[in-house]
């Protein structure tokens, strides 16, 4: 490790490693990159504990296009991220699609409005009435459903740590350095950040600092005398076995079931021979950064009743595993924050993904690298999700947040 780097990235999970990869992959960048990661096991990282899915079914064109790029990147991941003398990294992508169900006029109207945006962006999404839904997924009880939205392609789930480790391995091969340490202070001279001090005592000069600290983003920002409205919010996930699985019963997508979002907010998707499920919590306070105890009652009180009502196949199910992870929750509008601080321009935010970090990681990493190399966005313009909206208290509207 040297005592000076052009870019210091705080956090080496999927966002930080994506930034490191895109910087070092760009022939227009000849600088040095240091990634500081406090826990290289990533056992409690939001990346490792997520449900690792990707969808294009958003209401805002920017989020649709971010995921379209992410889907393309994931499809080409094995070839793009090949590291010399290593086997091709396989993300084991399952093209299951997302299935949104609406049982009120308001929900149905939202699906129709979102669909117009998605189709305008070229997304392969269809709307189904009750009869069409029942034909596609005969295991579902659709008596109360008014409308459904289904992703024919470009959506599914994949290996979460595979994406992260793939970025990391390729970034290191291309020259990025990683250090196991923790940033405990950030030096600042007027409108520029200048150094990071590590827990080990090392003081590193930094030309740019990227805040990719996930749920700890606010801690990193405060070290520079700045702020970001991001806090850890807990989400519990449950893996359950099903006595009579409906997987294979669909008449679309070669029989594979989708990631279904019930009108109640409960979601469910296949996970190998099992199913993975979760739900929005009834109460959603900020939690301690080390609080990873699942909310066990959510399965019995919310998830199981909703699923049993939706399909008789889900009446006889049994939890076989559960865990809790953290969203890096943007309290302003639940959407990503990508861009420099308007006054301290060499402090760059890559935070607040609110559960969408894995699927938005490729586009966000590319965007941050463009800001550093060119001083602006070159491919997808993410100005609308910059930090300026935080200062102006101007939420970025996205209706399809789950």
Structure description:
The chain is an alpha/beta fold and about 400 residues long. It has two domains: about 5-70 and about 160-230 and about 330-390, 3-Layer(bba) Sandwich (FAD/NAD(P)-binding domain), CATH 3.50.50.60; about 95-155 and about 230-325, D-Amino Acid Oxidase, subunit A, domain 2 (D-Amino Acid Oxidase, Chain A, domain 2), CATH 3.30.9. About 30% of the residues lie in helices and about 25% in strands. The strands form three sheets. Strands 1, 2, 8, 9, 10, 11, 17 and 18 form an eight-stranded mixed β-sheet that branches. The chain has an eight-stranded mixed β-sheet with strand order 5-6-4-13-14-15-12-16, with helices on both faces. The radius of gyration is 21 Å and the shape is globular.
Give the secondary structure arrangement, pairings included.
Elements: E1 4-10, H1 14-25, E2 33-37, E3 53-54, H2 61-75, H3 77-80, E4 98-102, H4 105-120, E5 125-128, H5 130-136, E6 147-151, E7 156-157, H6 160-173, E8 177-180, E9 183-189, E10 192-198, E11 203-211, H7 217-223, E12 230-242, E13 259-261, E14 267-271, E15 274-278, H8 297-310, E16 317-330, E17 337-340, E18 347-351, H9 357-374, H10 388-391
Parallel strand pairs: 1-2, 1-11, 2-8, 4-13, 11-18
Antiparallel strand pairs: 3-7, 4-6, 5-6, 9-10, 10-11, 12-15, 12-16, 13-14, 14-15, 17-18
